Task: inverse folding
């Protein structure tokens, strides 16, 4: 149901996903999810307030603490116990950053005894790799960027994450490269806490409408072109 005119809607923005959100020079959040939040708030008859987080794990934790109303997160079975997700609005590739001189050529080679993989704690690919890996060890850092930074400083054998930030790190730091294939495709969706899901149906319907008319894809394409 629509919110009362000028009511405040609290949107959780995960700044740990550099493809979808970032901090602007003035300190405010920007990016794909921020624009989607502003559009959703207008369509629901309210105003957007942003609650920013450095990583996804804390967003999920706060879903049960009534600290936000709507969020943008990767769909994961473990999260669905506390969150209700819409259909995906974008798919993101999960891959690996490795040293340029290393023998790694494919993500299929990573699951070996003695291999340490840096990940952002609670990120979608952390949850995914936790279920999939049998032999390699996950080194969980505070955020996705912290996982990359630790690897660049010599910690771990590789860093797992979203392709675009990993490729940016490889461009900016000599001696690193990103593997050509992916260990998973991560579906990103809009979500609400299950105990406060009264707006879910309207949010899902708006997303369906915007996907059909192409406006969601235009927002995504514009931001990715500027990245």
Result:
């Amino acid at each position: 149901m629509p919110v009362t005119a000028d009511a405040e809607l609290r949107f959780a923005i995960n700044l740990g996903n550099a493809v979808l959100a970032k901090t602007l020079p003035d300190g405010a959040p920007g990016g794909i999810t921020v624009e989607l939040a502003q559009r959703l708030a207008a369509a629901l008859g309210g105003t957007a307030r942003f609650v920013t987080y450095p990583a996804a794990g804390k967003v999920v934790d706060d879903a049960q603490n009534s600290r936000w109303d709507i969020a943008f997160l990767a769909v994961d079975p473990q999260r669905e116990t506390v969150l209700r997700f819409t259909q995906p609005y974008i798919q993101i590739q999960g891959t690996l950053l490795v040293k340029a001189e290393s023998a790694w050529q494919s993500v299929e080679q990573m699951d070996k005894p003695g291999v340490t993989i840096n990940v952002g704690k609670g990120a979608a690919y952390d949850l995914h790799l936790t279920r999939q890996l049998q032999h390699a060890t996950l080194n969980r850092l505070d955020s996705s960027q912290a996982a990359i930074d630790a690897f660049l400083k010599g910690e771990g054998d590789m860093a797992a994450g979203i392709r675009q930030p990993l490729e940016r790190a490889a461009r900016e730091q000599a001696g690193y490269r990103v593997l050509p294939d992916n260990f998973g495709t991560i579906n990103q969706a809009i979500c609400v806490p299950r105990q406060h899901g009264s707006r879910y149906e309207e949010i899902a319907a708006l997303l369906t409408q915007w996907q059909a008319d192409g406006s969601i894809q235009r927002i995504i394409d514009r931001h990715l072109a500027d990245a």
